[in-house]
Amino acid sequence: MRTLLLLIAFTVLGGVITACGGEASHADLEGTFFLHDRGEKQELFRIEQKDGQYFLSEKKNGPGWLEPQLAEPMQASELEEFIGSPVQVPFVGLKSTRLAVMKMPPGWEHQDFSTVTGYWAMSQLGPLPLHKK
Q1: pLDDT digits (tens, 9 = 90+) for 60-97
Q2: Cβ contacts of 94 within 8 Å, gap of 6 or more
């Protein structure tokens, strides 16, 4: 009986670990991203998939969105060049001509930058911790 209970417990635990530890895909980056700025949500951009390609649209300074730009997969070597060290964790990223967005494990840190959600962007302003709708 004890052996049966242990077998069931390990099977359930294995399923939980598999479900939580699955690799990220570019589809995880689809959605609208925003900053928390002084308690308010500030929309920055959105990523959409169309015909097997990803497109990034930045928020205008007024209502609406700028014209979508093609967003291509980001390679680990590109991220390593930006942060100046090897990437030791799984990640997925998309880049456009103006910015790149990544999903790292939640709580990822590098030097004095950290992201609670795992989502962040590289921009002309530097790294930005993001939240996703």
Answers
A1: 988 899 999 999 999 999 999 988 999 999 999 999 99
A2: 26, 29, 47, 54, 56, 71, 72, 73, 74, 100, 101
d(CA 78, CA 95): 10
In a domain, 14, yes or no: no
How many structural domains does the chain have?
Answer: 1
Q: Of 107, 49, 104, 53, which Cα lies nearest the Cα of 82?
A: 104
Residue with token string 């910015």: 99
Question: What is the rounded radius of gyration, in angstroms, for the C-alpha atoms of the chain?
Answer: 18
pTM of this structure: 0.78
- Cα dist. 132→29, 108, 123, 127 in Å? 9, 16, 17, 16
Residue 115 included in any domain: yes
113, part of any domain: yes
- Domain of 113? 25-132
Q: Fill in the amino acid letter for 26.
A: H
DSSP class of residue 85 equals S
Residue 30 domain-assigned (yes or no): yes
